[in-house]
Design goal:
By secondary structure, this protein is of the alpha/beta class. The chain has 13 helices and nine strands.
Amino acid sequence: MKIDTVTRDFVSDTEVFADVFNYYIYGGQQVIRPEQLMERDTAKVSLPYGSDGAAVPVQKFRDVQKLYAAMTDGRTEYVLYGVEDQSEINYAMAVKSGLYDMLEYARQVEEASKSHRRAMEQERKARQEGKAVTRGKRPDPGEFLGGFWKEDRLIPSVTLTIYFGSDVWDGPLSLLDMMETTDPQILSCMDDYHVRLIAPALMSDGEIMKLRSGLREVLLFIKYAKDKERLGMILEMEGTRFRTMERRAVDVIEAVTNIGLRFDEKEMKVDMCQAIREMRMESEQIGEARGEARGEARGALKNAQENAQNFYRLGVALETIAKGVGYDLETVKGWLGL
């Protein structure tokens, strides 16, 4: 089960997506509603310059990106939210997240420019056809050249990184943290970019409990996956929610922790408590079976050694003894101290 595929499918659910940003931005208040989220095209195109000065198309993808719309003071405000999920620590995350946001703003500028050009072209055609039209704005040279007019505004882009791992994130959390220089005068001339991180190992239980979706149980389980005693307490305290977990959330837990859960593949809801009990019972049974097998092997070895000693005392040839007990000649000699 590929971790990135499973986690991406999980966070793309509108309830989980809204929950992530309600937690991070609004402290758990239910401000963003799942039904207000609309899918956005996750493809981004960057045009870095190649060694020969030519533009080289490089396609970038957000893991999930949606548009959130809300009414404020009688006006509609559109705020763009993105989420980047990681199953391994990315030490260049500050650059990656910053690039995504800048590409999004570049896309918005281009869309504004296209919109203005379309409007001016429609006005020009209408006039040629003798239709009555309302004269639109005539941009000044700067506006016309850039395509972005003075009154145009960008939709804010906020990128969060969810780290689906139980280890402590030890990567840089800002662009300046990645810089080699410590010269304060140089740093004062640079803009920083921060990684907005959600990582279970860095969150208190109280912070995780502010989440409302299945992400809460996922992060709790991942946080304590290596602490069986604490995990058992969490499962007992939060038993009701863990007994009715959505399949996608359970898939994330299994993919990330690889603990070997057993459950009906056809079920859309999973009783995690029962699945773990069955996993432990199976593990105990396997352990008992291995213990019995080791015991039987030790018994068979002891029996072979005793038979070899008895045959030797009776004067039976060593080669015959070895064949009789099923071991090689040198091993039998070792048993007999020869």
